[in-house]
Amino acid sequence: MRYHIERACRMRFSTPAREHQVQVRLAPWDDETQSLMRVALRVEPKAEPVAGYDCFGNLAHHFSVLGAHKELSFSLVAEVETRRENPFDFDLVPPERERAWIDDSLRQAPRLWDFVLHRSPLTPDLPDLIFGRATPDLSEGVPIIEQVQSAFGWIREALRYDPRLEPSGDLSSLFATGRGSAADLAHLMIALVRRWKIPARFVSGYLDADYLDDLDGGDTRLQRPHYWAEVLIPGGGWRGFDPVLELAADATYVRAAVGRDADDIQPLRHACLGDGKRPEMDETLSVSRLS
Amino acid sequence: MLKQFQSGATGVLRDPTEGSTMAYHEFYYDDFRPRDHYFPMWDHIQAVGQQSLAAKAREAHLALHTEGVTFRVYADEKEGVERVWPFDILPRLITAAEWHQVEAGLKQRVRALNLFLKDLYHGQRILKDGVVPAELIYRGKGFCREIMDVDPPHDIYTHIAGVDLIRDEDGRYLVLEDNLRTPSGVSYMIENRIIERRILPELFSRYRVRRVEHYPEMLLQALRSLSPRGEESAVVVVLTPGVFNSAYYEHTFLAKEMGVELAEGRDLVCKNDKVFLKTTQGLQRIDVVYRRIDDAYLDPLVFRSDSILGVPGLINAWRAGNVALANAPGTGIADDKAVYAYVPDIIRYYLGETPILANVPTYQMTDHQDRTYVLENIERMVIKAVAESGGYGMLMGPASTARQRSDFARRIEADPRNYIAQPVIQLSRHVCYLEGELESRHLDLRPFVISGRESQVVPGGLTRVAMTKGSLVVNSSQGGGSKDTWVLAE
């Protein structure tokens, strides 16, 4: 599938900002599952954005605006072609060999340890019980992919998706309310899978708008970024799982950035001089399917 | 499992107090005769007498006070106290033969650690081969994944290393810690020499002492060799966190001695992946930043976003190869105290050589057997937090209270990766002139290794002295003192 993505942001400061350094992670990935056909970042006031890859392989752009300005805006336009029509298009490793497959992957690619060991307020060690329900352990003899999919139900019971919520900075604090954003549900899935000592990572990206319309009542074309988890599945490599829609990610999911958790891949980081308080932010997103 | 340094030997538990009752004395033989190289000093002390030494000690203190050679000691979390640099007038001597071995050992060690850092932040061959556990690295606070795949000039990460050496009961030099981030103390090494030459010229003339005063030249030359625009046009700055930093004196000293600007983060600005100094004549391009700011505060765009000490955009400029950073970010993983235990293996792995300088045996708290042993013998151990330095986060078992021990035991159980333990080593002793008496005190040595296009060790170092009788804590930040260190020419 081919998508056209436009993402824009406008920052307005109460008093002029100076020496503004900006880094954004908005561009879709370019790998075997999706091809980045075109990408451009426009900045106002004029700047010279530089593109580069971060330590997780995400394409980031950075630029500087040194002169005084009360407003700064940027927009990213990209076209991407996604190819994973069938998220189950791989040969399963027999359950009894899955652990060895994971261990071997960690040996060959030590960078994967980041996605097993990382703990943070967003992806904490989970308690044995949440809301009186036992946190699932990994069962022997059952394919890992099945157990990840079975976890959808447990996540739904622990955290109900609420599209009005902003992502939380502390996953554990949500267990009392039982509600969370897409990012929170993704973090819960990651924390669970890491408890099983299996690599799991956080994904930000874009979703075919029709899905979100369905979720949010279908009354608007207002779009926003989406978040899900990826799990290293024996035989299949990184595979996406969306606990909001309870789906394995297919070609309707466009990946923008991956990290240990959402803090690693903040879409915007910036620093500037000036007396202004935090800027007012306007953000827009448009994802449209071209074919 | 206990990591032991001796060539090839790992994993042998032994009684940590074995042979530790008698500290090596630098000055005396066991029968209290001065060692041969100390005899001229002994002769001098006897000749000048008590009153003269007292006058010299007062003169030294006054000179340090007048010249503002100070150090900030943090008595609690918030307030620092500025103290005159504590200095003992009697120098420590190192023979040419001893130094030859120390120098070779330091160069070997730092070369291997730079290769290790290059590998960790690129192909990670040593982890794939299982020589160092990947889990240990990825649990380490000093591991800086943000700099993966960046190529620093000459593939050097730690341009300035301050390696803490001690001597065991047999007088053998051991490495206690590798300080590879922003080690301090070198300005005091030079100040000690300047003072010593002034107050004890007669004694100085009786020895052929190798120079240390050229350290700033050596450092500047090494820093310039990192410049992306070539050595000739290299513009270097020292980046300091500011006046409240405990080593601010040193930052000003080095900038002055090298003849380069001392800058705070707000004095620098990045534009299109280049770093500039704001001057009254406009922006001046910077090629090399000798930074004395910790990684976490270096660039709010990449590390802690609340840092106001750093320079936004600095890491992108470094990544683009438009500026050199000394030391490079990410060196903290190689002086992590749990990784330290693997340094002998690291030397063998990259260099195929036997380590010249040995480690102190180290117990890993992530190892169940080691942890059990240490917790049962905690009063005989030194416990250290792996990512701390300056004597912070440390328990000195024999001098600890029951409450401190139980507190550390709890901390170890809660986060074993964050701690290691070592048997108490009786640091070597040396004669000091303290309040009118000749007293013996424990000491260590921090020599400095500079790595630019080539690796050099300044012949000397900072000798730190535990000023309290019997104490083994020499850290300046914990109230330790110092001596001039004389490396003798052949």
UniProtKB/TrEMBL annotation, chain A:
Q: Which residues form a coiled coil?
A: none
Protein name in the entry? Transglutaminase domain-containing protein
Q: Where is the signal peptide?
A: none
Q: Which Pfam families match?
A: Bact_transglu_N, Transglut_core
What is the species of this protein?
Answer: Thiorhodococcus drewsii AZ1
Q: Residues in domain Transglutaminase-like?
A: 174-245
**Record-annotated membrane-spanning stretches:** none
Give the domain of life.
Answer: Bacteria
From TrEMBL, chain B:
What Gene3D superfamilies would the database entry show?
3.30.1490.270, 3.40.50.11290
SUPFAM superfamilies referenced in this protein's UniProt entry, alphabetically:
Glutathione synthetase ATP-binding domain-like (SSF56059)
Q: Name one Pfam family in it.
A: CP_ATPgrasp_2
Instruction: Report the coiled-coil segments.
Output: none
Domain of life of the native organism: Bacteria
Can you give the residue ranges of the Circularly permuted ATP-grasp type domain? Answer: 91-466
* Alphabetized InterPro entries for the sequence: ATP-dep_Glu-Cys_Ligase-2, CP_ATPgrasp_2, UCP005522
What's the protein called, per UniProt?
Circularly permuted ATP-grasp type 2 domain-containing protein
Q: Which organism is it from?
A: Thiorhodococcus drewsii AZ1
